[in-house]
Design a protein that fits this description.
The chain is mainly beta and 114 residues long. It has a domain at 1-44. The chain has one helix spanning 31-43, and strands at 48-53, 59-63, 68-71, 81-87, 93-99, 102-108. The strands form two sheets. A three-stranded antiparallel sheet has the order 1-2-3, with no helix packed on it. It has a three-stranded antiparallel sheet with strand order 4-5-6, with no helix packed on it. A hairpin with a 5-residue loop joins strand 4 (81-87) and strand 5. It is globular, with a radius of gyration of 16 Å.
């Protein structure tokens, strides 16, 4: 396992305790950020080999070099966004969002996607 959702609540340095002033909402501050930055730098780009979806809003994305991304909702509430896939960089983005039991496709163009 490379990362887990709980890694976003620990500082990059992954010490035994987070300092009181630690702000996990600040971009780049978490252990998850550090691990994913290293993964992207060392392993990407990776092509998609296969995708499997389940009946509860989860999916398994099989990638090159035997990497797998497994995603699943962690709450049953219809009011929260469970996950968002983003395709594209810079100005033009397409997003697939699962919120509650509803899928939504979002297209952002130009400065909206930045």
């Amino acid at each position: 396992m490379l990362v887990a959702s709980g890694d976003r609540f620990h500082p990059r340095e992954n010490g035994p305790r987070a300092p009181e002033e630690f702000d996990y909402t600040r971009g780049g501050a978490t252990l998850l950020d550090a691990k994913m930055e290293r993964f992207v730098e060392e392993q990407c780009p990776l092509g998609v080999i296969d995708i499997d979806a389940d009946d509860i809003g989860g999916f398994r994305l099989s990638l090159e070099r035997r990497f797998v991304l497994e995603v699943f909702p962690y709450q049953s509430s219809d009011a929260v966004e469970h996950w968002r896939l983003i395709e594209g960089t810079g100005g033009d983005l397409q997003e697939m969002v699962l919120k509650g039991k509803t899928f939504e496709k979002v297209v952002r163009t130009g400065r909206d996607g930045v």
